[in-house]
Amino acid sequence: MKKTVIDLLLLENKQLNKDNFLLKLQSPISVSEIFPGQFVNIEIKEAGEIFLRRPFSVLDVDYQNQTISLLVKILGRGSKKLTEAKGGLTFSTILPLGKSFTMPSKNDRVLLIGGGSGVAPMLFLAKCCGLDPENVHVLIGARSAIDHIDIEDYQPLGKFYFTTEDGTLGEKGYVTNHSLFTNKLKEFTKIYACGPDLMMKAIGRIALENQIFCELSLENMMACGFGVCLCCVEDTKAGHKCVCTDGPVFNVNDLKW
Ligand SMILES: Cc1cc2nc3c(=O)[nH]c(=O)nc-3n(C[C@H](O)[C@H](O)[C@H](O)COP(=O)(O)OP(=O)(O)OC[C@H]3O[C@@H](n4cnc5c(N)ncnc54)[C@H](O)[C@@H]3O)c2cc1C
Ligand code: FES
Q: 61-85 burial, b if ≥16 CB within 10 A, otherwise e?
């Protein structure tokens, strides 16, 4: 799908827990070519002085009804305004942006890891990867049980595991402390992950040490979202690259960490 600026109509804004909301937006044009890992850059004009758009990964796409779902975590003013928006409002949105994950092949056994709002592209990938659910393993990390979102609708897509920093759900610690890393890592042919920078670096290091294919979706600060402002650059082995256009998905072998 060609990159486009369109007005998306907010159909639903549902609170999932204290800080996370699910926004369902309707597109006036087909959204059949938006893939896991890609994101949208949304103008929050209701917030007046917030003139820079804010990037959000695509959580889900309903191709038939032309809707896009986003998982929005309140971080600052822009995200808060979005979560307060009422159905019926429209948001000027640039989409689809960035490169998507490389789809696994049919014999792969994949580990998808999402930290915080990084869970959004992982759930979309679990839905679209076309693998038998027994070969899809999804590890989700958060600070505490109350920060995890309900993933019941996604359960049939694979096997889910959780970590919390305070031990209130799943195993205690960071995602890389999970027993999947200590006991079962070699069972996976591909790792895909999205989350905070330190988490990406920790996962990337382990994947490199164990020589496992690994793609990471980076969440560098962004402004334009389409390669003009250069505020999102990442140092890679091929020089500085814009995360918004050359990423956000990078193979770990290409990053210079
Ligand atoms: C490619 C991409 C995909 C993203 N996907 C999602 C998603 O699916 N769901 C979601 O909730 N969020 C996602 N984010 C993060 C989201 O864009 C930011 O939370 C949002 O832009 C913050 O805007 P704000 O106005 O609420 O906060 P601001 O007022 O702009 O900032 C509040 C604080 O957060 C910091 N901050 C802002 N953006 C980031 C960032 N990207 N990384 C680290 N710190 C930041 C600022 O420095 C400041 O300290 C994504 C970011 C990128 C780049
Ligand atoms: S956000 Fe402007 S170049 Fe990437």
A: beeeebbbbbbbbbeeebbebbbeb
Choices 2.40.30.10, 2.40.50.140, 1.10.246.80, 3.90.1150.10: CATH for 4-97: 2.40.30.10
Q: How far apart are CA 117 and CA 39, in angstroms?
A: 13
State yes or no: pLDDT of 110 exceeds 70.
yes
Task: Find the ligand nearest to 244 CA.
Answer: 2
19 Cα distance to chain centroid: 16
Round to whole Å and give the CA distance between 200 and 242. Answer: 17
Fold of 110-219: Rossmann fold (3.40.50)
Same fold, 4-97 and 110-219: no
Is the C-beta atom of 72 inside 6 A of ligand 1?
yes
The predicted model scores a pTM of 0.96
What is the number of the ligand 2 atom nearest to the C-alpha of 55? Answer: 1
Strand duo 233-236 + 239-242: pairing: antiparallel
Whether the Cβ atoms of residue 44 and residue 50 lie closer than 8 Å to each other: yes
Rg (CA), the chain: 17
Q: What is the pLDDT of residue 176?
A: 97
- Sequence-distant (6+) residues with CB within 8 A of 196 are 115, 116, 118, 219
| CA 247 to ligand 1: nearest atom | 1
CA 201 to chain centre: 16
Closest ligand to C-alpha of residue 121 is 1
C-alpha 62, offset from chain centre: 17
Sketch the domain layout of the chain as residue ranges: 4-97, 110-219
Residue type, 100: S
Question: At 36, which amino acid appears?
Answer: P
Q: What pLDDT, on a 0 to 100 scale, did the predictor assign at position 48?
A: 60
Q: Which residue, by CA, sits nearest to atom 33 of ligand 1?
A: 76
